[in-house]
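QA checklist item 7 of 12: single-chain prediction sanity check.
[x] sequence parsed
[x] length recorded as 160
[x] structure emitted
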Amino acid sequence: MIELDDIDRKLLAALARDATQNASALGRRFGLSQPAAWRRIKRFHDDGIIKGRRLVLDREQLGFGVTVFLGVKLATKGRVSLDDFERAITAIPEIQSVEHVLGLYDYRLRVVARDLADFERVLRRRIMTMPGVGDVEANVLLSEERRIGPVESLVATDRT
């Protein structure tokens, strides 16, 4: 585990809320010079605390109004390798994330589609026809809200 001081935690909390903030603005906000803030942020990247930045697109504005979470159970474990399944499933552009999980299903997929008819097309023609796919359970996303998760809460000792 990497040692973090109060300023490190404040910087990480601020960046978790808005990763577009620059070192100069963050330095001013937390009483650091621009170079000192930049060195800390660079250390976060170098140490693997920050693994990148992500652009969040508004799927609805882009015409993808339906998000479905699919639980996929492989029908024939051992006959289809997990690597082959993952490689094939990630080639489907409507699939936004693939998570290998423990439990009733082997995989959890996040699928976006223009509407329910479009989702049905993706499910029937692209997902269900893949070798090894067995049981599938679909859960349609009704609403989503970004909340600070447990890691950000642990880091955020101060909301300034």
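[x] summary fact logged: The chain has a mean pLDDT of 88.
[ ] second reviewer sign-off
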